[in-house]
Amino acid sequence: RLIANDLWQAVERNELQLHYQVQKAVNSGETVGYEVLLRWHHPVRGTIPPGEFIPIAEECGAILPVGEWVLREACREAATWNSDHKIAVNLSPVQLGNADVADLVQRVLQETGLSPHRLELEITESTIIGDKERALNTLRRIKALGVTIAIDDFGTGYSSLETLRAFPFDKIKLDRSFMSEVEASPEAKAIIRAILALGQTLRVPVLAEGVETRSQLDILLSEGCDEAQGYFLGRPVPVERIRPGGTASE
Ligand code: G
Ligand code: G
Ligand code: MN
Ligand code: NA
Question: Which among 72, 206, 216, 224 could disulfide-bond with 199, CB atoms 3.0 to 4.6 Å apart, if both were Cys?
Fold first, then answer.
């Protein structure tokens, strides 16, 4: 409860901060974009990780103002960059269940001047499992703006294949649990292969999450994975560290 009350005020009190984690092409090593990850610096409790407060924000509804702040802040920031790198913003199921989210995205793009093709929204499969028709409809409206949609944590949900069939995603983000096991487990490697083949057949690029070592990246290269993200390529960092002229983060 205490946290929920504080959360409603976190935006106004300026306690939220965005971190950016680089996403790279496996082949060329080129930076493709950045995932935007929210941090909450609580005045008393210190930094609270999103895994702890996002579920509470979703339950109490504060995810709507918080999510709006994240979207606007990230778009405003990216619009100032002297590059065409994408930003990938996580969208909560609660936001997607809200009828106005497509309008919000459109409004924020207009306000900030960010080109729609530079915005990607990350949706988890659980997002689609809820009120499916409504969610798909909203996603279609967002896509019509020119914004791309990535399916996050792929491989861990209940209906991966059905979800893919029902909606044309622009990217598959392979859940990081596969990476952590790829070297020890032939099964994990086989599943990665199968998902990469699926991506090729559907012509949807696959991004592997949770790449922590050079040898994991080498495996992705030999298996033909398109993009990668993880501590080996770059940790989530404040924006000063990724802006041109800032301290190198990669
Ligand atoms: O940054 P970290 O590794 O702690 O993120 C933990 C979880 O919180 C991830 O599942 C991530 O998708 C989620 N998360 C981070 N930032 C946001 C955000 O701005 N909005 C939503 N809905 N989820 C986020
Ligand atoms: O669910 P989502 O994919 O949005 O979550 C991203 C989360 O994964 C963030 O909390 C981020 O800090 C974390 N993360 C990013 N790279 C790595 C990594 O290489 N290893 C691990 N264990 N976590 C990572
Ligand atoms: Mn994500
Ligand atoms: Na993920």
Answer: 206
